[in-house]
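Review the following:
>
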Amino acid sequence: MGCLFSKRRKGKASEQTPEAEEPPKQYSWDVRDKVDPKDYMFNGLKNQTVGRLPGNVSGQRFVIQDCENCNIYILDYSATATIDDCTNCRIFLGPIKGSVFFRDC
């Protein structure tokens, strides 16, 4: 007597043909390009004029922080924009899908 769910004996398993190995499955998150958060951030700039042209942000979240006396242009659409600790800066933002946060400016 044996359990219905028990493994078969080695002698019977050798009679069966081995199954062909399947290639590993590819998921959408494996194929997707990796996003570098530094591409969507301006940090610690002083006395500069910087920006992003259309097609560079492509709806990602954008962060601007610790900038002084800068002109910043974001000419692309974005999901949200967060601006922290900026002093005497001019900031031009394109269309924003969600919210724009200004803190300690």
In short: The radius of gyration is 27 Å. The CA atoms of residues 17 and 40 lie 54 Å apart. The chain has a mean pLDDT of 86.
